[in-house]
Amino acid sequence: MAFGRSKAKYESKQDVRWLVAGLGNPGREYDGTPHNVGFDVVDSLVEAHRISTIAKHDGIFGVGTWSDIDFDVAVLKPLTYMNLSGRSVKPAMSQLQLAPGRVLVVHDEIDLPFGTLQVKLGGGLAGHNGLKSITDLLSTREFVRLRAGVGRPGAGDRRPIKDWILSGWDQPSAEVEQLVMDAASAVELIVDQGVRAAMQQVNSGGAGPA
User: Which residue among 35, 49, 57, 107 is the active-site one?
Assistant: First the structure.
């Protein structure tokens, strides 16, 4: 399943049923870092499925028409810096008139091994400041998360987590690209088949859609 060609529609629409927000930090110095994997997943979807984007909602925003299903999906990269992500997600959700359960946040997760994906609805924030900002602004934790496992520093790496996660990946680029592709497939699965079905496939290690 894949996005079709974007119709470049940006105003509030009844047929937009999901907002996919990939978290990260703006600026070239943060490109290619574990903390920006959410940005990378949205970039992958935008490029592969030809979604037109504009500057809106303090971020990069676009709407794509799902080719085989009669509804649209919005994508968003907040440019507020990670700790203020809610300032971008909240107005986008409000304009699209979506419930929190139709907001899918893609983010890095240090408590999952590299390459592991997990779909989650609500629950704890695991100390993630981007999730905390979104929770504070939405006044609820009941939004969907796709946790992209980035792991932790290797043995002998004495850098604090906050420094390591803003540095370049330890893994080869091919493995990072595979993680991003797998996460993009998981996003498509969630939107296409729903959260519960995606949990069963993704959280058990099953592959996403081709």
Answer: 35
Active site residue 35: yes
Cα–Cα dist 203/152, whole Å? 20
Compute the distance between CA of residue 96 and CA of residue 70 in angstroms, rounded to an integer. 16
Per-residue pLDDT tens for 188-205? Answer: 999 999 999 999 999 987
Flag whether 192 is in a domain: yes
pLDDT digits (tens, 9 = 90+) for 96-136: 999 999 999 999 999 999 999 999 999 999 889 999 999 99
> Coil, strand, or helix at residue 148?
strand
**Residue in the structure block whose two tokens are 């993009």:** 184
What whole-number distance in Å separates Cα of residue 129 and Cα of residue 141? Answer: 13
Residue 207 located in a structural domain: no
Q: Give the count of domains, the chain.
A: 1
Model pTM? 0.91
CB 128 within 8 A of CB 107: yes
Domain hosting residue 28, numbered range: 16-202
Element housing 63 (H / E)? strand 59-65
- Is residue 160 classed exposed, middle or buried when 0-12, 13-18 and 19+ CB atoms within 10 A define those classes? exposed
The residue written with tokens 């600026």 in the block is 27
What CATH number is attached to the domain comprising 117? 3.40.50.1470
